[in-house]
Amino acid sequence: MKRGFTLVEMIVALTLFSLLVGGLFYSLSGGLRNWRKISRRAALGQIRLIVAERLCADLRQGVVLPGSTSSEAIVRLDGDQVSYQLSAGKVKRNSAYLTVEGEIGRLEFAYHGRLTEVRLDGLSFEVQARNE
Amino acid sequence: MRKSGSALLIVIMVASVLMTLAVILTRIVYNYSVSEALAAEREKAFWLAEAGLEAGKVELARDPGWYTDLPSGPPVGHAGSLPSGSYQLVRVKDQNALSAVGRSGRTKVALEITFSTGPFKTLSWSQI
Q1: pTM of the full structure
Q2: Which residues constitute the domain of residue A43?
Q3: Which chain A residue has the Cα nearest residue B104?
Q4: What ipTM does this complex have?
């Protein structure tokens, strides 16, 4: 009568088990890394959306001033002057920063008559400024 | 009493459970990734459609009679493009509605506004 496992059985079982556990950890860590990457991208998408909506609202209600360039939009808004630009990797509205470094990599403007084209990272849109 | 080969059997059973978990996790991450990519495309398409409407509003402010299509036949519209994709703008003659379809990749978003002219005023906005 035999009791327990044989040595060969144990070696084969442990080898298989360690291979599988190793594979599982590799898969788990890869999955978690991807999850973090996708979550970060989703969060950046939300930030981009907030900036786009803010910009859009200001441009719609304002008058784009002649000093505006492809890197800076200057808008007159209810008597105040508001400027948007990317400064040190951050979106700057007048002296306040709307984002932190690395959240938005590109902010460019182009002007086609009454339409202002905005390129905000991968997002691009046009807004009709009041420009009366 | 244990029979020969039972350790292997236990390992295979445990391994099956672990592999199932790994497959489930991979599937969840993959689905999340696909849905996130789709959401990003939808966002781009939405802003493209908005850009189309803005372009239409400019035309209508300049000329309230501006149109892209006649009431008969399928609408062809007026096309425009931006770095993130393109849009198609439709205003059927004499109808006080303006619609725009934004396209980014294979994703489309359609928006429609109704308006009154003289002066131009937006009455309603909807996603269709």
Answers
A1: 0.81
A2: 7-128
A3: A123
A4: 0.76
